[in-house]
Amino acid sequence: MRLYKLVLLLCLASFWLACSGSGISVRHDFDPNADFSNLKTFNWMELPKEIPQRTQEVLDRAPDLHMLIKTAVENRLRNKGYEMRSPDGDFLVAYHLLLQAKEFVDVSQPYNNVSYGRLLRTAVKKSTFKKTFEEGTLIIDFVDPETREIIWRGSATKMVDRQSSPEKRDKNVGEGVKQILKKFPDNKNK
Q1: By C-alpha distance, which of 95, 98, 99, 100 is closest to 48?
Q2: Judging by DSSP bridges, how do beta strands 91-108 and 41-44 pair with one another?
């Protein structure tokens, strides 16, 4: 019986470690008609005169975040073989930030003194656990400079920890950008 419990505990621990990962949820989408083979250079899209309120709220909380994101995107694109060219490029880069309040509710019903032979349940206790947290999303768009249409979009979403150190935040942004651009085609073999 002890061996059974130990094996079960090890299996659960292994499952938890496998699922925990970086906690970043990543999505990608692209225009199927876009020709990515001709893309060699990029530049940043000019910021709109009025930044969307949600993005501005996030940047107000962490003013250095703008340069952190730009640097991470530029470095990752250079590693993929793209060159930054000003004032024009084969595609333009833009990003958006969202911060949303989320809520997690868990209702559990542990049973004590359960007799499975007669399906008799006694001492039923319900417990409700509610947690509010913030979820941050970084969206990176690559835009055709002539049509101003999005040709590729990637996003990364992660729970925000306001108590994390600046180093941890920088690492999370770098990892988010890396995961977003992982599926964007390389330019090294063109």
Answers
A1: 95
A2: parallel
- pLDDT tens, residue by residue, 47-85: 776 766 766 776 777 778 888 999 999 999 999 999 999
- pLDDT of 188 higher than 80: no
CA dist 140 and 97 (Å) reads 9
CA distance 24 to 171: 12
- In what helix (H) or strand (E) does residue 6 lie, and over which residues does it extend? helix 2-20
- Spatial CB neighbours of 54, under 8 Å, sequence gap ≥ 6: 97, 98, 99
**Domain at 23-181, CATH from 2.40.30, 3.30.200, 2.60.40, 3.30.160:** 3.30.160
* CA gap 175, 145 in Å, rounded: 27
- pLDDT category, 36, cuts 50, 70, 90? very high
114 exposed, middle or buried (CB, 10 Å; 0-12, 13-18, 19+)? middle
Phi (first) and psi of residue 116, to 5 degrees: -75, -20
